[in-house]
Specification:
With about 350 residues, the protein is of the alpha+beta class. The protein is built from nine helices and 13 strands. A hairpin with a 4-residue loop joins β10 and β11.
Length: about 350
């Protein structure tokens, strides 16, 4: 190698950011840069001419990749000790983890091996810290998963207990209301036909309307919402039976969208239906007149429904005014409509029609 090229080569080696060390075919050190001096704690003159093994810990010298034979036999550029940890031996006897790359050089002066040596102490420390943190994270994650499983189990158990409790509450409320209904019925039977007896019957129907709500809730798996189509048919059947009107004389038509109402909406609606169906049966079809009572519940805009009870009977009296009615049943309907926040429309031509439009939770 010409002198000028040698000088350029040495300058490049000296300027390299990593430790650069060159050995000859016999494994003797022939060139080092300042980074090697800094890394191993030797002066340059203490390294030149020495065997490479002086930088290898004693316990690794027999079969360490940096042994003289391993360097002499290097024929291509490659990392040393792939998959294994490499260590260098400092002048003070301490060891430093290193990463070594080997590059064979063929020159006019012979064959050499150029080694790049990088101190990986901080990299190893960072890797160990990363593994430690990952271990802690895995441990915390496992602990968190265990806590979540335990809490989920607790909540599931509490939910099951709550469902059982709600089911039992609805069952008991229904039974208590049925007892009240039976007591009213016993009292009603002792009275002669007339207004007092009719008043008790109306009271009994109201109690039964509420009891039916709790019965439907008890039978369903959703203890907060009532499936309304089935409820309306059961309620109407109870009212028809209580008033003694034959279904063959007055027929019932039910057109209800598949809706489930919350309890705070279902109970007022049930009472309104009970009053309006009962009122239609009593006053809409006098003297054995036949006809039809129609109950509809339709979805309107999102979050609003329309509930209507209509008939094709004799209609409402002239100048009928719901606000001034003296009948308890219609006064109750008006009060329940206010409770629902409903807009109420009454029509009395060609029969009677009461329509309530109100908001519901989706």
């Amino acid at each position: 190698m010409p002198v000028s090229e040698q000088n350029q080569f040495r300058l490049a080696i000296e300027a390299a950011p990593a430790g650069m060390l060159m050995v000859d075919h016999a494994g003797k050190i022939v060139l080092v840069n300042a980074q090697v001096e800094k890394l191993f704690g030797y002066r340059r003159d203490e390294l030149i001419g020495q065997p490479i093994e002086m930088l290898v810990p004693e316990r690794f010298r027999a079969n360490h990749p940096a042994s003289r034979g391993g360097l002499a036999n290097a024929t291509r550029a490659r990392p040393m000790g792939a998959g294994r940890e490499l260590f260098g031996l400092r002048a003070d006897g301490s060891e430093v983890p290193v990463e070594i790359g080997l590059s064979p050089l063929k020159t006019d002066e012979g064959d050499f091996i150029l080694s790049s040596i990088v101190d990986v102490t901080e990299r190893r420390r960072a890797a160990m810290e990363r593994e430690r943190l990952l271990g802690e994270l895995r441990s915390l994650n496992a602990e968190l998963e265990q806590r979540v499983r335990a809490r989920t189990s607790e909540l599931t158990s509490a939910l099951e207990e709550r469902e059982v409790l709600l089911q039992e509450i609805h069952h008991r409320v229904k039974n208590n209301l049925q007892v009240i209904s039976s007591l009213i019925n016993m009292q009603r039977r002792k009275l002669e036909a007339g207004p007092p007896r009719d008043a008790l019957q109306e009271c009994q129907l109201r109690v039964q309307a509420i009891a039916l709500i709790h019965e439907k809730l008890y039978q369903s798996k959703n203890y907060a919402r009532v499936a309304f189509p089935a409820y309306v048919r059961s309620l109407a059947s109870s009212v028809f039976h209580a008033t003694g009107v034959s279904p063959r004389a007055v027929q019932l038509e039910v057109e209800i969208d598949d809706l489930a109402l919350a309890v705070d909406r279902a109970i007022p609606c049930g009472l309104v239906l009970s009053e309006l169906i009962s009122n239609a049966l009593k006053h809409g079809f006098p003297d054995g007149r036949g006809g039809t009572i129609k109950v509809t519940l339709r979805k309107l805009d999102p979050g609003r429904v329309s509930l209507e009870v209509s008939d094709d009977g004799v209609g409402l009296p002239p100048h009928f005014d719901l606000e001034r009615t003296s009948t308890l049943g219609l006064q109750l309907v008006r009060t329940l409509a206010e409770q629902l926040g409903a807009k109420m429309t009454v029509r009395g031509v060609g029969g009677a029609s009461f329509e309530l439009e109100f908001a519901v939770e989706e």
